[in-house]
Design brief:
The complex is a heterodimer of chains A (about 140) and B (about 40). With about 140 residues, chain A is an alpha+beta fold. Chain A contains five helices and four strands, in the order H-E-H-E-H-H-E-E-H. Chain A has a single domain, classed as 3-Layer(aba) Sandwich (Glutaredoxin). In chain A, the strands form two sheets. Chain A has a two-stranded parallel sheet. A two-stranded antiparallel sheet of chain A has the order 3-4. Chain A is globular. Chain B contains two helices and three strands; from the N terminus they run H-E-E-H-E. Chain B has a two-stranded antiparallel ribbon with strand order 1-2. The radius of gyration of chain B is 11 Å and the shape is globular. The N and C termini of chain B lie far apart (about 35 Å). Classes of the chains: A alpha+beta (about 140), B alpha+beta (about 40). The interface between A and B is large, with 60 and 34 residues.
Chain lengths: ~140, ~40
């Protein structure tokens, strides 16, 4: 997992994970899992609404599945099976510096999940294009 | 309005309970933003 975080950081980017439990739950989870990236929480679910994860909690990813997906990437294969809280219908966004949307993942069926290589490619492609002009 | 525009002024909480504006996260660097269902 740290290898993939390093792949992202090697591209000058950061992995940001947003959950929706209490601050205490987020803090405990981050410590237990020794997550090497920022973890945030949004109990109001406003960010989920704005991201149009409109099927609500059922359409988002479990962090464990995210970690499984990252581990699968490190090992060089695309994860095809999951158990428990699977990486299923959810949302992942790759956002360029300044807010340009580079990649958006929306699953279409159970078991469908983002390919980490696509996320990294989006970062690579985004870095080759001129930055979007600042809004305003 | 695209999804990043809608998200940019939404505040989330860090693990210390401090409010963080999402847009601030991609102001200085690209980010891979993942929404999760729950912890664990």
């Amino acid at each position: 997992m740290r290898d993939v975080v390093n792949e992202i950081r090697g591209r000058g980017a950061e992995l940001v994970v947003v959950g929706n439990g209490s601050v205490e739950q987020a803090r405990a989870f981050r410590a237990e899992q020794k997550l090497p990236f920022p973890l945030f929480t949004d109990p109001s679910l406003e960010s989920y609404r704005q991201a149009e994860l409109r099927h609500g909690l059922s359409s988002t990813l479990s962090p464990r599945a995210v970690l499984h997906g990252l581990a699968a990437f490190r090992e060089g294969f695309r994860q095809t099976r999951t158990k428990g809280a699977a990486m299923q219908q959810g949302g992942v966004f790759v956002i360029g510096k300044g807010g340009r949307l580079l990649y958006q993942y929306a699953s279409r069926e159970a078991g469908d999940h983002p390919d980490n290589r696509e996320l990294l490619r989006a970062l690579d492609d985004g870095s080759r294009e001129p930055a979007a002009p600042a809004a305003g | 309005m695209n999804v990043t525009d809608r998200l940019t002024d939404v505040f989330v909480l860090d693990t210390d309970g401090q409010e963080v504006r999402l847009g601030a996260l991609w102001q200085e660097q690209p980010v891979v933003l993942v929404f999760v269902r729950h912890y664990g």
